[in-house]
Amino acid sequence: MWINRFIIYQTSVLYLIIPIFFFFMGWLRTSIGLLLSIVLLTAYCSFSKLAKNLLSNDSLFHISKEHCVVFVILFIFLLCTGNTGFIGCWGNDIPWRNAIYQDLIHQPWPVIYDYSHSILCYYITFWLLPAQVTSWLNLNEFGSNTVLFLWMYLGLVLIFLLLCDILQPQKGHVLLVAIVFLFFSGINTLGMILRSFFIEPTPLITNTPGWGSWEFTNFHINGKDIVYLIRSTYINISDVYNQYFALAVSTLLFFRFRGYLKFYALIGLLTLPYSPIGFIGLLIVMFLDFIWNLCNKRSFHGYKKFVMEAFSATNSLAILSIFPVFYFYYSMNVNATVILNSKHTTFTGLLYIPWEQFSVGHLVILIIYYYLYFIIYARLIYDDYKNDYLYWIILLCLIMFPFFRIGTSSDFNFTATICPYLILCVLIQKHILKTLNSNCFSLKDLLLIFFLSIAMLTPVIQITSSLRGAYVHNTISYKDFSLQNAWDSQLLKDSLRDKDIKSNGNFLAKDFERKVFYRIFAKR
Known about the structure:
3-stranded antiparallel sheet
């Protein structure tokens, strides 16, 4: 079957924009929501017109039987994440996400909790369309989970199709693209062996899909937990899917339209409603790309054209419609307020480990983290990309992100690395496909295949742990109670309506009536 390549990109952008429309019309005053929806729709139409012209040549994309086989694999892979509670063991963060999703279904928007006198303030955009569809159809919990699963599956299919269009795999290589993407990870198994040999025995397969069986850089130093990690594709989908799908789609859109500055603000800002930290990671990559392009302009006319493209109608309309609303929305959050009005706004406050506490132990852990997560890969593809500035940009980001934090945890590095790490995955796949097409393998290529194979054991172990958790408890789907002492187990199937704001500041905003978002934008 042949389809127009433009449809893939058009659908991918709509996948991100439509839930934003639901936020505008469901959470904002009708007049403001309608106005911003029209502005964003105009930005989308401008993007569509420009993108269609760019993709006019060789515009057909062939969906073969091999693609259809991959669609089945994607379906099974998504089932194995445990999301929506069909198969396997739920991840540690999923109970909170399920509670938010159910509140979005059963309570009016914006969601306000009388018990804690607070408003739901979190990265909710991904759930809005499934929640509204569920509400319209009056579905039960199983039905709501089915709608959410299908929404996630559509996102996974779009990511795969974007990858195929970017990489242009030949017949017989499509399955390889899917396998490398789905099972892409750091070389965690080697790290776990080193940790078991030098420090303490570590389990390989547990009964829950936590960090115990795969995170080798989780240490307690000087009274502080130090965690350096980059999530595998599996963990991104199983634990932070509400952020990951938008970030992956936007990252691939950026990669495909590199150099077309007319799209940059739209592509970047489409991630803000889904993941503010992920947006920062993507923004830094795009900003460095922007600066590189700016520095390569050699004449006044070149600079003038550059500025005109940067402030195109697509970019300007995207900025006007998305940024103000979500800036004020997120700024209501308790944690965001603490960050914006504290020492964390200084450079020293943004450091994950203050300079005076940084030790030789931290340096050793960082070096091992660097090597096993990305330096080995980067070195093996160096010859292909040593003259590609994007290669150096993503390496710089992956090196620098672990030094910073937002708030009190290392979540910044966990999420901000999604964009550069996915780009590294794309560069690796391009190198592999080029090697396969030329049928000329070097020792570096064989080493790359070897290390990728070892790395793939990590998601295999993660999937096995998830399925084993359900098997051990004699059920198809097991709701993880591993943190029951810290989290109310009722939250697994209930809501945030009876939760206090002190222990749920990541999701709730207090004193919201005095905040700009509620006073100016929010529906009453």
